[in-house]
Specification:
single chain, mainly beta, Pectate Lyase C-like, 2 domains, ten-stranded parallel β-sheet, about 30% strand, globular
Length: about 350
């Protein structure tokens, strides 16, 4: 997404551990190594895989383990990642569903996958990565799961102050039925891109028991996403100032957008300096109908009293933004600037409605 004011370029020094319980998640690599199309209608991975930097597993990098998963696999493959910091980019291509990526440490901080590409970073061919391409980890296959891992982008905005394109994604999802549990996703601007394979394609994401950090539009995209029982941390910008936006949904009108429920939005920042969200009409597409709902969530004093704002000439009032029964010093009563769902209306804004026939 295009930045608004100066983006903070903090080094997201995030050492994290992928610890995913057995049967948790499979990952596919982001590297440019293509996987051949399977010749059989049903392809099953022969064994589960273990990533260890010291060579004690089946692979020493996460991408190498993803590359070892056969394209078209029809049964879950678990990639267990042992404690360590893995400085690499990883892409799971759409041809490799059912990957479960599990960190084997005692907490997500023990397994970290981190890199420092940004939208304006130059590729080897002289082009730039762009926002989506800057992601450290790209989950482009259906039925991907991850647990007990940290996904980070530590692009240093201060060191690259003269570079345009400071957006730096830590984790990108671009598929359906994505489950993330007990993960940390940390960065600065545009940390977590919850996307879909196409404008008119549904992509459902379920995030629980996790932590998401950033300061500018750091949860964004067009997916139908439920974030529940999680901690959303707003952070200061590189110059130490406060100010930013939690969400920037870019929802197609036929789908639901972002639902944050039973969570906490907080941060060590100045009071009343962060918006809950704003509407991202990607590419200036006026037909989009961005949606952001925050309900039954504890809001710290970081949240502005008027929590929604416009973006790139599009008014939030023309899209779908509302709250329901939030608590804490950042919560507020219903007003023209702060729409609240009634109890009756709120029955249509639940995890079951958002996820439909999928039970994660």
């Amino acid at each position: 997404m295009n930045p608004t004011p100066h983006r903070r370029g903090r080094r997201a020094a995030v050492l994290t551990t992928l610890a995913v319980a057995a049967g948790a998640l499979l990952v596919t690599g982001q590297t440019a190594q293509a996987t051949a199309t399977p010749t059989a209608s049903d392809v099953t991975a022969a064994v589960d895989l273990v990533v260890a930097k010291d060579g004690s597993g089946t692979h020493t990098t996460v991408q190498a383990a993803v590359n070892a998963v056969p394209a078209g696999n029809t049964s879950p493959v678990t990639i267990t990642v042992r404690p360590g910091t893995y400085r690499e980019t990883v892409q799971i291509p759409s041809s490799k569903p059912h990957i479960r990526l599990v960190g084997s440490g005692s907490s997500p901080s023990q397994v970290t996958i981190v890199y420092n590409n940004s939208a304006g970073t130059t590729r080897p061919d002289g082009s730039t990565y762009g926002t989506s391409g800057s992601a450290t980890f790209m989950a482009d296959a259906n039925d991907f799961q991850a647990r007990n891992i940290t996904f980070a982008n530590d692009f240093d905005e201060v060191a690259h102050a003269n570079q345009s394109g400071h957006q730096a994604v830590a984790l990108r999802t671009r598929a359906d039925r994505i489950r993330l549990e007990n993960v940390v996703v940390t960065g600065d601007q545009d940390t977590l891109l919850l996307d879909t394979a196409g404008r008119d394609t549904r992509g459902r994401v379920y995030i629980t028991g996790s932590t998401i950090r950033g300061n500018v539009d750091f949860i964004f995209g067009r997916a139908t996403a439920v974030i529940t029982n999680s901690r959303i941390e707003v952070t200061r910008r590189p110059d130490g100032s406060s100010g930013g936006y939690v969400m920037a949904p870019s929802t197609a009108p036929q789908f639901n957008g972002f639902l944050i429920t039973n969570s906490t939005i907080t941060g060590s920042v100045s009071d009343r300096t962060y918006y809950l969200g704003r509407p991202w009409h990607a590419g200036g597409d006026a037909s989009l109908d961005p949606q952001g709902i925050v309900r039954n969530t504890q809001l710290s004093a970081a949240v502005r009293t008027t929590p929604w704002t416009d973006m790139s000439g599009f008014s939030w009032r023309d899209d779908r933004f509302a709250e329901h029964r939030n608590t804490g010093p950042g919560s507020g009563s219903a007003s023209a600037d702060r729409p609240q769902l009634t109890d009756a209306q709120a029955t249509a804004y639940t995890q079951a409605v958002w996820l439909g026939d999928w039970t994660p």
